[in-house]
Amino acid sequence: MSNCVAPETTCGNICVSLATSNEHCGLCDHDCLPQRFNEEATCIAGTCQRQCKPGYVDCFGECRLAGHCAASFCPATATTLNVAWPTNACGCGPNEYPDPNWGCINELRDVRRCGGTPCNAQEWCDAGVCVPLTSYISGFNAATKLLVKGGVHFVIDGPTIKRVPTSGGTPTLVTTGAQPRDLVVDGNTVYFADYLNAGIYAVPTTGGAPQLVASATQPTAISIAGSYVYWAELAYQDSVKRAPLGGGPAEVVPLPPFSYGTTIAQLLHDPLRDEVVFWRAGGLGSTLAQLFSASPINNAVTLRQTGYSYYVSALTNDEVYTFEADFCQQRVFPIVGPSYLLNDLNVCVITSAAATSNYVYGSHDRAHRFSTCAGQYVQLTTTLPGTAVVGVDAQYLYLLSSQGIARIDQ
Question: In this structure, what DSSP letter does residue 358 have?
Fold first, then answer.
């Protein structure tokens, strides 16, 4: 076909409008396609114009959920380049100090320069004033795991599981096992993985004798999706299994073969899809890691991402925020879409993580905070007496030590 009527033009054997065709935008065979996840592209007047889809905003080169990337993360008063954020992202704002190595240090929250001076050991920065970090809840002996749920702290303390209101008080016994490794709360029931008692157990949140849900060999991490409880088994190179919440035989979650042995340290719940999400990291001789999601429907498994040595993560905003072990980076892995670097400030050896929609927290011998939008970093505490386990609710960041719980404002 060659007799096209203006303003259409012949491209191959068809007549097209170079002004509006996404397949022939401005020129024949010049595609107008999205270049980023959650982006749309439209050919307008022969020029490909790209913008984030409705409900998303441009946030440092990524299309992110609207409201997730607040304008306050890039203050209008900024004048000095923040080298710790993406190049030329924005400068330091009010109450921020431009450090040549760490970028903009928040002098109202960061203990490295709290009110202009560094804090001492076991302190946090409250509105520019260094404050001692003390436990507001005590009464534990060998606490290792913290779950904040419905205004209650659930704590694994040695062979016991205890509970205490987040408002404060004295911990009370929920149940006693042999060696609980992880726990999850569903409604009025606590489910926990008992490593030595070789099983997944259930107990009322108010306390009682544990009831066997399913036998399991060396179970570690645990989560819930749909009407199933999921757990990882160390005995079988960290396979994942599941069983009905009401009890019943266990079945294997079908994962593809993997070289070098594996490590599965966490099982996270994806509330949007009601699925379990987890990293499977290569063992000795491999740094490869794979991010899977497991659906309670038909026991289906989907490979979501691949990465390197990712162990500790938190899930929020439909994204997995991961503290990478070998390269000391904080990287974001959307459940759907490409991963991207959140921060590269050499914050290493993170052993616990938690997240809200605005912040992701990590801890080891001190606590750290990163904004989920731009990765702005704040060191929240100085050196702690031991390794801390983090938990969050709408108001506080909680830090569990072996004998108590401290809290600081988010």
Answer: S
Q: What distance in Å separates the CA atoms of residue 296 and residue 243, rounded to the nearest whole number?
A: 10
The strand pairing partners of 306, in sequence order, are 290
What angle is formed at CA 90 by the lines to CA 334 and CA 112, rounded to 5 degrees? Answer: 90
Average of per-residue pLDDT across 219-238: 87
* pLDDT tens, residue by residue, 271-328: 988 999 988 876 555 567 888 999 999 999 999 888 776 668 888 888 888 887 666 7
Q: What are phi and psi of 158, to 5 degrees?
A: 60, -130
C-alpha span between 76 and 365 (Å, rounded): 35
DSSP conformational letter for 151: T
CA-nearest of 226, 184, 219 to 198 is 219
Helices (H) and strands (E) in the chain, counts: 0, 39
pLDDT tens column, 81-97: 333 333 334 456 678 78
- Is there a contact between 35 and 63 (Cβ–Cβ < 8 Å)? no
Who contacts 189 (Cβ-Cβ below 8 Å, separation ≥6)? 202, 203, 204, 205, 245
pTM: 0.78
